[in-house]
Design goal:
elongated; two-stranded antiparallel sheet; single chain; 60% helix; mainly alpha; 4 helices
Length: 160
């Protein structure tokens, strides 16, 4: 953080999402710790690269800085400009409705994901128990004795 302390264009900060920053973290979709987010404060993105200084610095040098948006239309493609202009024509209420709808879709996807992972976990636990029970049954049925006798017979042949 010290390397960027005097930057006029970059903010590097840390935030304890279990305390004072919880609302900020919740609004930016922080679900695990530590998390690194970057980009426009209104649309933070997940950073999934390396965690050492060199990797972070390389990412910042290559990806951060002014980007396409309402304040930087000159950096946008024609398609992006059209999309921004279309959204700019909407009322605040319409924008809020679209944001809420998109966020709901993301929450629904997360809920479905968690539910399906829970089902997979239960299935995994059931399969693990069935496997462990089957292995225990095979061992109980005499596998150890079979292996001991086989090893003993092999050793006996070598001594002849």
């Amino acid at each position: 953080m010290a390397a960027f302390a005097d930057s006029k264009t970059a903010l590097v900060a840390d935030c304890d999402c279990t305390a004072a920053c919880k609302p900020l973290c919740d609004s930016n979709g922080v679900r695990g710790f530590p998390s690194i987010k970057y980009g426009d404060p209104a649309d933070m993105q997940d950073y999934n690269g390396g965690r050492d200084y060199d990797a972070l610095k390389a990412h910042a040098d290559e990806n951060l800085g002014p980007s396409c948006g309402p304040k930087n239309l000159d950096l946008c493609s024609d398609a992006q400009k059209t999309e921004i202009e279309d959204v700019m024509k909407l009322s605040d209420d319409e924008i809020d409705e679209k944001i809420a709808s998109a966020e709901k879709a993301m929450e629904d996807a997360e809920t479905t994901f968690k539910s399906e992972v829970e089902k997979l976990q239960k299935n995994y636990e059931g399969l693990t128990k069935a496997k462990d029970d089957a292995i225990a049954e095979v061992k109980k049925a005499g596998l150890g004795v079979l292996k001991q006798v086989k090893a003993s017979k092999a050793k006996g042949k070598d001594e002849l």
